[in-house]
Amino acid sequence: MQAQPSCRREWISRGEADTVALAEYLARRVQPGTVITLDGDLGAGKTRFSQGFAAALGVKGVVNSPTFTLIKEYEGRLPLYHMDVYRITQDEAEDLGLDEYFEGSGVSLVEWASLIPDLLPVNRLSLRIEHAGGDSRIIQCEGMGSPYAQWVDELPQQGELKKNGEPEDGKA
Predict the structure, then answer these.
(1) Radius of gyration of the chain from Cα atoms?
(2) Domain range for residue 108?
(3) Which residue among 31, 67, 79, 84 is least enclosed by CB atoms within 10 Å?
(4) How confident is the model at residue 95 (pLDDT cuts 50, 70, 90)?
(5) What integer is the mean pLDDT of 110-119?
(6) In this structure, is residue 7 part of a structural domain?
(7) Is 52 within a domain?
(8) Residue 137: strand, helix, or coil
(9) Residue 60's CATH number
């Protein structure tokens, strides 16, 4: 069996605008069946990332954390399945049929994904957002499998993304 490509990088966000620019950059690359996992402490920016990502997908209206509903579905360029598994066990999560979302026609954003490691697809983009003082965040990006490893490998440095997620040099 051939090993899947993987790539890991650290990305620095100096504020919400940088986090949103990263979300927009990634949203431009997604395709049906994309899975992005989000982990980090409370208030680290998972939901803010999700809001920027959703807006870049063309989702209209308010996007907030699905903490009490577990999964919220939104319509945009692709369907967005925004999940929050913070309040459930892995056994409870197994009964939700998450694999149907992961393999579906939309994009899955999974907050607190580290709580359900055995249910996640092998190929995915994992983001861990950590406080770095003030409004700054360190975002650990790990692309596992195709196309995620390539996305991380090609990720511009913080400050090299325009507001719309486009690289400053026009490459994408």
Answers:
(1) 15
(2) 17-116
(3) 31
(4) confident
(5) 92
(6) no
(7) yes
(8) strand
(9) 3.40.50.300
The tokens for 129 are: 């957002």
Termini Cα distance of the chain: 31
In the chain, the number of structural domains is 1
- The residue type found at 41 is D
Angle between helices 16-27 and 46-56 (to 10 degrees): 50
The pTM score is 0.88
Distance CA 94, CA 157 (A): 37
Task: Give yes or no for residue 93 having a pLDDT over 80.
Answer: no
CB neighbour burial string for 146-171, b if at least 16 within 10 angstroms, e if fewer: ebbbebbebbbebeebeeebbbeeee
| Confidence band, pLDDT 50/70/90 cuts, at residue 94 | confident
Q: Would you state the pLDDT for residue 63? A: 82
* Residue 43 located in a structural domain: yes
The answer to whether 42 and 68 have CB atoms below 8 angstroms apart is: no
Would 11 be classed as within a structural domain? no
